[in-house]
Structures are given as C-alpha cells and as structure tokens.
Amino acid sequence: MIELVNSDRCIGCDICVKVCPRDVFDSGDDGLAVIARKSDCQTCFLCELYCPVDALYVSPHAEQDDEVDSEQLIAQNLLGSYTRNMGWSRGKMGGTDKDPTRQLRILNRVGREEQPTPQRQLL
C-alpha cells in the first residue's frame, strides 16, 4: 500500500496522479502529490515505478497500513527501491528480465507485428 510521498523530493509533476489506476492521489494546494484515498491503493507499484525523482514509497503489504519514517526510508535507500529492482531508472522503463513490464512490451510488440496490415480497396 502507498505509504509516503516525500515532499522534499516531489516536484509536482503529477505522474503518480495520472498513472494510478485507483485514483489514490490528488494534486495538493502546493502542487505536490497527496495521498487522498490510501485505502483504495491496490499496491500495483505503478506510482513508484513512474516517479522520476524517487519520492514515493509503496509498502509490499497490501492489506495493512505500515507506519514509516521518511528519514529512515531515505537512510535505507528504500524510496524508489522497487523501481531500481525492476531495472528502471528514475521513471525510465527498464530492460532487465526482472521487469515484468518489459515482457508485456515485448509481447505487445510481437502481437502487432503478427497482425496483417489492412489493405485498402480500390474503388
């Protein structure tokens, strides 16, 4: 479940707001992301994956609310750690075999290549 938006790192890009499939985030009055509907989080990690500045921490515990300390997460290098583990770098898609989205992109590309190009009929 999403546990933290680090306000010192957040740049207000709203990428997390846009990629969240459950509409968990809002853009705050100061322009920074705010966790508005935490209980709606499905722990998909998309927000953490796409954050370009490693400002988010998603706990792997989907069903419980973990109390986290921002300074401790920073000291343990846990902000953005899921992103790095997937082979991504600061919001950029990865290419390692550990990245399940890479496999989806490959399958999607292969699927498009296998489909015949529609032919136009001449009248």
Automatic annotation (TrEMBL):
Tell me the segments the record calls region Disordered: 88-123
What keywords are annotated for this sequence in UniProt?
4Fe-4S, Iron, Iron-sulfur, Metal-binding
Answer whether the UniProt record assigns the keyword Phosphoprotein to this protein.
no
- Stored InterPro entries: 4Fe4S_Fe-S-bd (IPR017896), 4Fe4S_Fe_S_CS (IPR017900), Fe-S_Ferredoxin (IPR050572)
Where's the 4Fe-4S ferredoxin-type domain?
A: 1-30, 31-61
- Top-level taxon of origin: Bacteria
Q: Which residues form a coiled coil?
A: none
A Pfam family matched in the record: Fer4_9
Q: Does the keyword Acetylation apply?
A: no
Against PANTHER family, the record matches this protein to: ADENYLYLSULFATE REDUCTASE, BETA SUBUNIT, FERREDOXIN III
- This chain belongs to which protein, by name? Ferredoxin family protein
- In its UniProt entry, the species of origin is given as Nostoc punctiforme FACHB-252
